[in-house]
Amino acid sequence: MTGLTLGPVGLRVRRRAVVASLALLLVVVGLGALGLLTGPLGLPVDRVLDALVGSGSPLDQLVVTQRTDRLLGALLVGAALGAAGALTQSITRNPVASPDVLGVTAGASAFAVAASVRPDDVQALLGLPAQSAAVVGTLVGGIVTAAVVLLLAHRGGFDGYRLVLVGLAVNALALAVVAWLLTRAESEDAAVATRWLVGSLDGVDHGLLLPFGLLVGVCLVTCLVLADRLGAMRLGPDVASTLGATSGATVPAALAVSVLLAAGATAVAGPISLVAFAAPQVALRLLGTAGPTPLAGALTGAALLLAADTAAQALPVALPVGIVTSVLGAPFLLFLVARSLRRTRG
Amino acid sequence: MADHPRTTTLHEPAAAPTPAAAPALRARGLTAGYEGRIVLEKLDLDVEAGRITTVLGPNGCGKSTLLRTLGRLVRPREGTVELLGRPLPALRPRELARRLALLPQSPVAPEGMTVGDLAERGRQPHRPWYRPWSPEDAAIATEAMTSTGVADLASRPLDELSGGQRQRAWIAMTLAQQPDVLLLDEPTTHLDLAHAVDVLDLVVRLRSQGITVVTVLHDLSLAARYSDTVVVLQDGRVRAQGPPADVLDAGLLREVFGLDARVYPDPVDGRPTVVPVGHA
């Protein structure tokens, strides 16, 4: 009977998602352990473990704290970007519409640099301490950039190509602003400049990890609540509506969560490119989910960014992780664009 | 209204008509349209329960808009629509989705979505987000795929299927909603005749399960063969409504479609079949 043969089929579909998720977790654990136990200063394993439980020498503790910060940074930023990309890809039904391709992370970066170049003005304007200028800058920048892109791209709906072209232009503009501001500021700290231009996990700010972790947690729970409505929206607004999932609050909520995640990730590691775009698309192919789902995107994003950062550090010349993700992500982007062009023509 | 008994083996017998039953859908004084353009004007329509009703009319006469207004995808500017005696605005979105399903014209699924995923999605109106997927949901989704003949394709991605299979997979999603009323907007567009007939045979089977079906079709002869009632729209109003044999004649085709055509009883069960001669 068909009903009986279907059970195993249905199970197999889910088994694939479970197996792929476990494989990704294994990658995360493996690369995480590698990152903690090895590194530039070559601490022996027992001293790393001692430091982890808090009984090592102050110097060891310092080294290990840096390694855990980098690891946590990679996982949280990757998860945030992966979920953020899945959200925008779901509501626009466009595989290329992610906060990094659309310029939201670059815009957040530009505002952050502008704010940190003039911390005193930020303090005077908002009454906030100068140290938080960059963080506030990324959040404001993310929201402003998203609003600008949506406003410029909106013509009685969102045409896929128009949205992406506007996003690419805003992205280029924002990165040019970052470069110009950094040149004007004559920043002597190359690491800082690199972070705001291409994104890097070097010297992740320890103090940002806890608030960012909380933000990611809250946002992922929101994604869980939105999951069904997003699933219906991936079938188009008409079908979503006939399934009783009227899009009214779903689109603004998903957009807000996506922008918060992307801006937060930029505050921690700068505008790392193409992870938000690639992670959900890799996830749906790996896990066999029906479209880009935020939680699968988060898991895949965490694994991808950690893998990219591990590779970046293992290279003869250590590169910022943003370069590696660009180099790996660009061919994938070209592949998807080429295929979607073929599809539209065929 | 006279019932048309069928003698072909293709079709199961029509559901027994319940003459005094309230209409499944009742529209009164319906005026609807899009920005600056009125498409339907003061339209009245009763859709009989448990029957196949097909909306016909020339391009741009408001067929899709009527269907979308009946399914609340378009809010009327004036007038009311009642579903099984309850006005549409009184129904919450999920409540409406449990009673009425609408399949828009040429829907597109996301990449990687399988037939099974699509059928399961139809359970959404019955399942709040916090309630886990139940064996009952699975059984209903499976049944929907079985009755549309796509159960064997459950694990196949939609983009690998033929047009006819894909359309039946989408109908499986609407069936998993367990609706009383099913609205199908041009379900046979882009399908060759054999696949179109597949879909329409399925519609006949749905009627025998007690589902009220309203479709939009372009092919007049197919509409005549498969519908209990045809509704002919002209300029946003109902021009004629009734059994195909009573409604479709050369005079109406000339006036509504601007078509010079002969109408003959078909050799199978004597329903009207339209032979176009030329532009009137």
What do these coordinates show?
The complex is a heterodimer of chains A (346) and B (280). Chain A has 346 residues and is an all-alpha fold. In chain A, helix 3 (58-92) crosses helix 13 and helix 6 (133-153) runs antiparallel to helix 7 (160-185). The two termini of chain A are 37 Å apart. Chain A has helices at residues 2-37, 45-52, 58-92, 104-117, 119-126, 133-153, 160-185, 190-198, 206-233, 237-242, 250-269, 275-287, 294-314, 321-345. Chain A has a single domain, classed as ABC transporter involved in vitamin B12 uptake, BtuC, CATH 1.10.3470. Chain B has 280 residues and is an alpha/beta fold. Chain B folds into two domains: 1-84 and 181-280, P-loop containing nucleotide triphosphate hydrolases (Rossmann fold), CATH 3.40.50.300; 108-179, no CATH class. In chain B, 30% of the residues lie in helices and 27% in strands. Chain B is built from nine helices and twelve strands. Chain B has helices at 63-70, 93-99, 115-121, 135-147, 163-176, 193-208, 220-226, 244-247, 250-257, and strands at residues 25-34, 37-47, 52-56, 78-83, 86-87, 100-103, 181-185, 212-216, 229-234, 237-242, 259-265, 272-279. In chain B, the strands form three sheets. A six-stranded mixed beta sheet of chain B has the order 6-7-8-3-9-10, sandwiched between helices. In chain B, strands 2-1-4-5 form a four-stranded antiparallel beta sheet, with helices on one face. In chain B, helix 3 runs parallel beside helix 5 (163-176). Chains A and B meet through helix 1, helix 9 and helix 10 of A and helix 2, strand 6, helix 3 and helix 4 of B. Chain B: Its main location: membrane. Chain B: Residues 25-260 form the ABC transporter domain. Chain B: It is a peripheral membrane protein. Chain B: It comes from Luteimicrobium xylanilyticum. Chain B: Residues 13-22 have a biased composition (Low complexity). Chain A: Its main location: membrane.
